[in-house]
């Protein structure tokens, strides 16, 4: 059977002997990536039968995969037609899998921009609250992290720097004392990982950026809320400037 318009033939359908969960994940991941990349565009419709034929899997496997995509807001049932692909405005854009699919596709820069702008709105507030609320032991841990982050940056150890940077920003979100901010640490980790993975981070971070991390940690440790927030704003502003030179070179992408 020929796949419906907008759906490409799968290059490597799973074997019948593959575990059902593997077959389900293949269907889920392939369709998710294609929808997020625009290969399967908004308003495209397809049937369960067409997906069965494409991937050579059972109806139960297809239904499980489609239910997962529906839960992410990527598709919705359409009566007497099958499934309809939804536009970006309906997606669960905070879902980590959706973020990863977008980072892996042509919307990479747009996704990084959205995440960076979100960080700019949230992290200065988190740093201010951390300075007012954080226990002394956590503040001391943050100062130690800032020192290790500085050393990794000066040494050009990109992998170590990334892990420490994720830990640093995650700890600040936790130290804010706001459980909703704390839950955003995965999003921050994704944008930091994305910048490194797609070569958007210098091997040797600027000394000014390293010093800003130290300034934040020191301000939080000493309870200086305004200094903590201002230093985080400085980091976010610097990041936006660095990133803007990248996304200005990219052609606009319509999701």
Automatic annotation (TrEMBL):
Query: Which UniProt keywords are listed?
Result: DNA-binding, Transcription, Transcription regulation
Q: Which domain of life is it from?
A: Bacteria
Q: What would be one Pfam family of this protein? A: GntR
Instruction: Give the SUPFAM superfamilies listed for this entry.
Output: GntR ligand-binding domain-like, Winged helix' DNA-binding domain
List the GO molecular function terms.
DNA binding
**SMART domains the record matches:** FCD, HTH_GNTR
* Xref: InterPro entries: GntR_C, TF_FadR/GntR_C, Tscrpt_reg_HTH_GntR, WH-like_DNA-bd_sf, WH_DNA-bd_sf
Q: Which residues form the HTH gntR-type domain?
A: 21-88
Note the PANTHER family from the entry: GNTR FAMILY REGULATORY PROTEIN, TRANSCRIPTIONAL REGULATOR, GNTR FAMILY
Q: What is this protein called?
A: DNA-binding FadR family transcriptional regulator
Q: Taxonomically, what lineage is the organism? A: Bacteria, Bacillati, Actinomycetota, Actinomycetes, Micrococcales
């Amino acid at each position: 059977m020929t796949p419906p318009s907008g759906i490409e033939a799968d290059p490597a359908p799973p074997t019948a002997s593959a575990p059902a969960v593997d077959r389900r994940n293949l269907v889920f991941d392939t369709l998710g990536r294609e929808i997020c990349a625009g290969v399967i565009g908004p308003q495209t419709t397809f049937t369960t039968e067409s997906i069965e034929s494409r991937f050579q899997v059972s109806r139960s496997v297809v239904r499980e995969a489609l239910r997962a995509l529906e839960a992410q807001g990527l598709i919705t049932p359409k009566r007497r037609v099958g499934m309809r692909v939804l536009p970006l405005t309906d997606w669960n854009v905070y879902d980590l899998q959706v973020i990863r699919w977008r980072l892996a596709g042509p919307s990479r820069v747009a996704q990084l921009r959205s995440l960076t702008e979100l960080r700019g709105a949230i992290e200065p507030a988190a740093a201010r609250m951390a300075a007012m609320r954080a226990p002394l032991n956590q503040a001391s841990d943050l100062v130690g992290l800032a020192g290790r982050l500085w050393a990794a940056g000066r040494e050009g150890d990109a992998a170590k720097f990334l892990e420490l940077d994720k830990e640093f920003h995650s700890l600040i979100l936790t130290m804010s004392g706001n459980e909703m901010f704390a839950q955003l640490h995965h999003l921050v980790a994704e944008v930091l990982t994305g910048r490194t993975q797609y070569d958007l981070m210098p091997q040797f971070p600027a000394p000014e950026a390293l010093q800003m991390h130290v300034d934040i940690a020191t301000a939080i440790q000493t309870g200086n809320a305004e200094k903590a927030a201002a230093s985080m704003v400085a980091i976010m502003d610097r990041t936006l400037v660095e990133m803007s030179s990248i996304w200005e070179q990219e052609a606009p992408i319509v999701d």
